[in-house]
Amino acid sequence: MAGTGVPPINIEGTADWSSLSRMMNNKGIKFSKARTAGNSVKVFTNTPADYRQLVALLDSIKRPFFTYQLKEDKMDQRVIRGLPKEMSVNDIKEDLASQGIADAEVQQMTSRTTKKPLPLFLVKTKMPEKLLEIQRLTMLTVSFERKKKSTEPSQCYRCQRYGHTQRNCRLAERLSEIEQLTRMREKVNSHSK
After folding, report:
1. What is the mean pLDDT of each run of 10 residues along the chain (193 residues)?
2. Is the whole-model pTM more than 0.70?
3. Which residues share a beta bridge with 102?
């Protein structure tokens, strides 16, 4: 994050960097530095507006890249305790909306080992201060706790690389070995007909 609080954007391929940098210049996208990192270029934009413009440009030309989420776009995550595990996620969302938190994303947490639902619900919102005012949901007394940080590095479910998440990844999807074999068999079968 080169001191600006704006995450870098890792753009795949270095061969056409000069034409890409000209496109960025023509669009008025400012960046403090860019450096090669393997077969990619890591670009550090100056402002969140430049960051968003560059992401939009790369999306429009379908250029593979990955980045991280802007701090201002991150949602606060809290765990809701005190609700039964049979509670509907939609009921929780509706109750939160009626109490002034319309942007809430709610999901039920599951056990890592058994994969069974737990009586815990994860709520993501940009209004964490309003959550602190809430004492009841669906007429039940609840408490909100900060979600514990994982000790494991984040892994992208799209490209399988570590250090970023699927939400901000535009790299090619990496298939499992089984999916790769299945696609190869389908190609061979289609060519043999």
Report:
1. 75 88 91 88 92 93 89 86 93 93 91 90 88 89 84 77 79 66 68 62
2. no
3. none
Burial 102-136 (b: 16+ CB within 10 A, else e): eebebebeeeeeeeeeeebbebbbebbeebeebee
What structural domains and CATH numbers belong to the chain? 9-72 (3.30.70), 75-146 (3.30.70.330)
Neighbour tally for 188: CB within 10 Å: 9
* Euclidean distance between CA atoms 134 and 117, whole angstroms: 24
- Which residue type occupies 56? A
Amino acid at 57: L
193/182 Cα distance (integer angstroms):
17
Other Cβ atoms closer than 10 A to 52: 15
Which pLDDT belongs to residue 177? 59
Alpha-carbon gap, residue 17 to 27, rounded angstroms: 15
| DSSP-assigned states of every residue in 50-113 | HHHHHHHHHHHTT--EEE---GGGPPEEEEEESS-TT--HHHHHHHHHHTT-TT-EEEEEE-TT
